[in-house]
Amino acid sequence: MARMTIRVLLVSSVVLSAACGGSLAATTAPEPNATPAQVAATLDPHTEARTRFQNPGGMWMPRQMPEHADTLASLGVALPAASLSDPTQAPLSAVVSLGGCTASFVSPEGLVVTNHHCVQGALQLNSTPENNLVENGFLAASRDKELPAGPAQRIYVAQKISDVTAAVRHELEAITDGLQRFNEIEKRQKDLVAACEKDRPGIKCQVSSFFKGSEFQLTEYLEIRDVRLVYAPHRRIGNYGGEIDNWAWPRHSGDYSFYRAYVGKDGLPADHAPENVPFHPRSHLTIPAQGVAPGDFVFVAGYPGATHRIQTAAEMTHAATWMHPRYIEKAHKKMALLAELEKQGGETAIKAGVTRQGVQNGLEKYQGILDGLKNSDMLQSKQAEEQAFSEWAAAEKTREQYLAALSAVRSKLAEVWAADAKDEAFHDVVASSQLLSQAIFIARWVEEQQKPDAQRKPGYQQRDESRVLGTQKSFAKRFDRNVDRAFLRYMLQRAAALPAADRAFLVPMLGAQRSTTLDDAQIDKALDQLYQNSTLEQEAVRLTLLKSTPKALARSKDPFIKLALQLTPTVKQLEQRDERYMGELASLSPTYVQGLLMFKGGMMAPDANSTLRISYGTVRGYQNAKGVTYEPFTTATQIPGKNTGESPFDAPKKLLEAIAKKEWGPYAPAALGVVPVDFLADLDITGGNSGSPVMNGKGELVGLAFDGNYEGLASDVVFRGENTRTIACDIRYVLWVMDAVDGADALLRELGVEPVL
Ligand code: ARG
User: Fold this and answer.
1) From the CB of 364, is ligand 1 less than 6 Å away?
2) N or C: which terminal CB in the chain sees fewer CB atoms within 10 Å?
3) H or E stretch including 244?
């Protein structure tokens, strides 16, 4: 246990020792026969500090960055730490959210760079039978040929971040009922958002919770609605290595693409219209003449979605023994179902293929987290840490509240988990079918519309309408009834196998008697009835229903709508039960986290929550579990060796020809003598960071984060700097492909680069 406390302290002392680094190597002339690393060390007094620096992890909030000033200075970072605390100042003002992915402005004309895998929807939407953009990629010949990325695509530009903790938490303790407390928190958040958006068209505001409800922030975003596809490389460049290389290293993906942000002539966000003009961002990232080298300082800014580091040992165990194994089991089965469906050919095969990629990505992610948890001492360390925390808290009267909070959190969670099997079956059935979840959404939407706007549930308000309607337009691109039915059937089968008490909802759903066993024949009969008679997959039908009234909806003959109306009371009942739990935890967790912060005695980063974060570290390789050491860069000349000619290792001829020519122009660093493709850095990222700019110490763009290594997946739970790596696409590869392969000359010039190849 004592060892544990030391380990915890060590994590923060790594930061401290780096911070105390100062000037370590004297600035003298390099030896004549010195290696490049030695030369660099003598030229740069901070090299040693960077070599010693081990990222302790942390997706830092901008407001925390000034606290990193000493560490950043010791690493030789030119950028003042304070400039990383302001979202309206360069370089952060260039970093934007795409809602699920990150991107950055790279020209004064609203040009935005992100990952290739983040623009798949736009490519799909614009594909025609004659020209499959998903496969062939796209390069707009001129500005007026740029394609709409779709009515639901957004670019969110952060304008301001303010602390609203007091406004949300004020006298919450006076409310003793959990549900009431939840409702009050929700109401306060809605009020803050409404006040922030009032009379400000084009502004979207969002309240986010940090440290389990200890701190709340309000972020104001400019919401750009006219987003256009400018350029995406060929799929076999952008997604080279496909799913085989996903979460893997070495890697050779050119995972980049470009959008452009458009606004109305008045400079305000507007719906897509030909007369709209490019948006002029506050700042844009520039590309340095020299890219990064091993050992260089880099940082990443972006919108990571979710991590689970601040959690109790019981939560970690629960995830490792219940949640993840079940997720994995279901994902395996879905993969098998999809593989079957792919054999059918046609539209179903294409949709099943796309779905399978997503399922596989998630499957590998959770398998990776589980492997990490199982094959390390993470669980034991967590338990030891919690034990040490408990002893620390018990040792002093003033700290006993923290211990009480921890044990109250524990028993509350145990209560929540008692309903696991039952909850899981219901949620899985509802979520498995897009038609069923759409029907439930429609039923809820129509019901909420009856209330005054301010009283509606978040997500069902006026402010959500354009996004909700926009999403309907892209439904057809994702939906396939064979896939939909196969998933629903599987979840119904799983639910049917539960003890009768845990699957009561199935009985009316399948039109069965309470006492009977539910067999496949009954399930298939119910499915026939649902799918043969529903018209919900038609966009016009859904749009009409969304705009209808509860009365009209009750008259609907659509079997999915009927089923949705039947299930809605249960949906709401479970929602309210969970809200009560959340309200109860809202008074316990912050106290526990406050104690944890004191116990750890240092800076702590909050878990990711889709808000703007910064992680910094260095470009470096790693050693995998088998003891293989990897260099931090891959190069273009490695591609032909990897290329079997078979998907996903089937680079387009034009790429292979350009590589064979070995004309690298200014894009190859002298040390490599060839264009780098991807690189590794010990940066702390997660899903949502895709497309995030990786910057050097001056805030210049050197790469695009697009993945992480398998060994690092468990970092979503416990960050392990020694083997967690971000995988980024080197900006020099982007430029070289643009120049040597795709001839994207006008775009290169817009990026400030003169094409030469
Ligand atoms: N694994 C990445 C993530 O989930 C996505 C990588 C996309 N590329 C791919 N081949 N699936 O964040």
Assistant:
1) no
2) N
3) helix 242-245
Separation CA 640–CA 179 (nearest Å)? 61
The catalytically annotated residue of 245, 255, 716, 742 is 255
Known catalytic residue: 423?
no
Considering the candidates 690, 707, 715, 716, report the single residue annotated as catalytic: 690
- Rounded CA-CA distance 44/27 in Å is 7
Active site residue 332: no
C-beta 692 within 6 A of ligand 1:
no
The pTM of the full predicted model, rounded to 2 decimals, is 0.93
Q: Of residues 46, 116, 117, 318, which has the active-site annotation? A: 117
Question: Does the active-site annotation cover 255?
Answer: yes
The beta strand positions in 277-333, using DSSP E, are 277-278, 297-302
CB 693 within 8 A of CB 613: no
Tokens at residue 683, please? 């940066």
Residue bearing the CA closest to ligand 1, atom 7: 117
Residue 395 CA, ligand 1 centroid: distance in Å? 47
Phi, psi of 726 (to 5 degrees): -85, 140
End-to-end Cα distance, the chain: 62
Q: Is the pLDDT of residue 234 over 60?
A: yes
Ligand 1 atom 8, closest CA: 246
The number of helix segments (H) and strand segments (E) in the chain equals 28, 20
Q: Determine if ligand 1 sits within 6 Å of the CB of residue 83.
A: no
pLDDT at 6: 30
Q: For 384, phi and psi rounded to 5 degrees?
A: -65, -40
Q: What would the two tokens of residue 323 be? A: 């949640």
Distance between CA atoms of residues 129 and 150, nearest Å? 18
For 483-542, what is each residue's pLDDT tens digit? 999 999 999 999 999 998 899 899 888 887 765 778 999 999 999 999 999 999 999 999
Tell me the pLDDT tens digit for each residue of 21-46: 223 233 334 455 656 555 555 678 89
Whether 709 is in the pocket of ligand 1, judged by its Cβ within 6 Å, is: no
Q: Is 630 exposed, middle or buried (0-12, 13-18, 19+ CB in 10 A)?
A: middle
Taking the CA atoms of 494, 317, 604 and 18 in sequence, report the sign of the dihedral they define: negative
Cβ(593)–Cβ(468) below 8 Å: no
- Three-state DSSP at 340 gives helix
Q: Do 279 and 156 form a contact (C-beta atoms < 8 A)?
A: no
Q: How far apart are CA 717 and CA 721, in angstroms?
A: 13
Residue 686 CA to ligand 1 center (angstroms) comes to: 11
